[in-house]
Amino acid sequence: MIKQTVAVLTVTLVLGCGGEHDQHDADAPTPVATAAGPTPTMYLPGETLFNLNCASCHGVKATGTQQGPPLVHRIYEPSHHADAAFYRAVELGTQAHHWGFGDMSPVEGVSRGDITLIINFVRWLQREAGIT
What we know:
The protein is an all-alpha fold. It has helices at 2-15, 44-53, 55-58, 83-92, 112-128. The protein has a single domain, classed as Orthogonal Bundle (Cytochrome Bc1 Complex, Chain D, domain 2).
């Protein structure tokens, strides 16, 4: 009986995991190619702000670390995580929902204008990686 219950739960969980964006906390993020070459001048302010406020968890060039997921990943493409999701995450924090890195706390001292510059930098990185 226990083996049957485990089998049913396993099948239910596997079938419930459909969809190309449905990654679960146990899954490790797949590395994505990063931008080759220097950051264009127009994205340098966002890169500086990202490095100061985000890179300790999300990695240099948003490639991820042991503390946070890569933002240069298809899960964070605009059609799945619109810019509003980034604003909310920075301003209010967010619960972990794709991987097991834990919840993200709000980032203190980052203005809405700063977030816009950071988002522009991240979206450029994503375009360079062929994500957007």
